[in-house]
């Protein structure tokens, strides 16, 4: 390994994807460091570590770092539904956990103005984000998923009264924040196709959308509306997830289908969209969600279901970026 290859590797370990133009001449090491999206503390810590570790290499007497704040591309995935209460927030939280477990740097934006539930789902109620350079710094949780939520900006019960520009402005603050190393941002949208969705596609066009529905007709008609909305805005749709499919009675062991069966898969087929998977109606999902311990953390059948959906999402993104 040549000296410069060795140095490049060391730098890559400390600042993955952020250093370029590595040059060693007359014992002076120079390179470019992309500090886009990092807050001051993260920036200073990274620079200090680079100087310390690279400075320890033989033949490096001096280090010159040129900082640029070229914005790192961040992939935005919007999670939408036509109807409320179909499990959109539950899916968003568990998808984020499953993607994180698959090695992605995931961040979460809870844009559900009518009932921000990510702080509870990701176990970080009461934590308010700080700001630097007029931009919010996402709050980190125990799962390693930085998050910003409408609920952190509004007083309890206030957000629902926000209209067009206020809702759009709040969304802008959540998305245009110090996301640091985050490369995948999950946006938990409010149900339907209102002000926040409009602002989302006009100002922060997502790279992709994912739609969730329960299997019954009414929810599917609404889901089709959400799909048409993203289609019209030219946001590619990764696929459709069916939630609350099949209920296993904990008492008699019989499986019943309170919301019908297979409706979302058939609808996906009809609309020529990929079907991403089915999540059963299971009391343990509700209980784990209420406790702030998303079931995607576990390796049981429910956790595996979310992991399989996450896998389809990453495969779709890899195909798109080819
Ligand atoms: N598969 C499931 N099995 C059991 N309970 C579920 C399941 N999916 C979601 N729930 C529960 O249903 C309720 C609604 O879910 P969630 O908040 O995720 O829906 P939503 O579509 O985001 O709703 P909203 O429109 O309020 O944003 C929650 O109490 C959640 O724990």
Descriptors:
single chain; 322 residues; alpha/beta; Alpha-Beta Plaits; Rossmann fold; 2 domains; 3-stranded mixed beta sheet; binds adenosine-5'-triphosphate; hydrolase; Mrp/NBP35_ATP-bd
Helix content: 25-40%
How would you sum up the global shape? Answer: elongated
CATH topology of the largest domain: Rossmann fold
In CATH, what is the homologous superfamily of the largest domain?
A: P-loop containing nucleotide triphosphate hydrolases
Shape-level CATH architecture of the largest domain: 3-Layer(aba) Sandwich
Number of helical stretches of at least 4 residues: 11
As for the number of domains, it is 2
* Structural class category: alpha/beta
CATH top level label of the largest domain:
Alpha Beta
Average pLDDT confidence is: 89
- Please report which band the strand proportion falls in: under 5%, 5-15%, 15-25%, 25-35%, 35-45% or over 45%: 15-25%
Summarize the structure.
By secondary structure, this protein is an alpha/beta fold. It has helices at residues 3-14, 40-55, 88-101, 118-121, 150-153, 164-175, 195-203, 217-232, 263-270, 283-290, 301-320; strands at residues 19-25, 28-34, 62-68, 75-80, 106-110, 130-132, 135-137, 147-149, 184-188, 208-213, 237-248, 255-256, 275-281. It is built from eleven helices and 13 strands.
Describe the protein's architecture and organization.
The protein has about 325 residues and is an alpha/beta fold. It has 2 domains: about 5-70, Alpha-Beta Plaits; about 75-320, P-loop containing nucleotide triphosphate hydrolases (Rossmann fold). About 40% of the residues lie in helices and about 25% in strands. It contains 11 helices and 13 strands. Strands 4, 5, 8, 9, 10, 11, 12 and 13 form an 8-stranded mixed β-sheet that branches. Strands 1-2-3 form a 3-stranded mixed β-sheet, with helices on one face. A two-stranded antiparallel ribbon has the order 6-7. Helix 8 links the parallel strand 10 (about 210-215) and strand 11. Helix 1 (about 5-15) runs antiparallel to helix 2, helix 3 (about 90-100) crosses helix 11 and helix 6 (about 165-175) packs across helix 7 (about 195-205). The radius of gyration is 22 Å and the shape is elongated. The mean pLDDT is about 90.
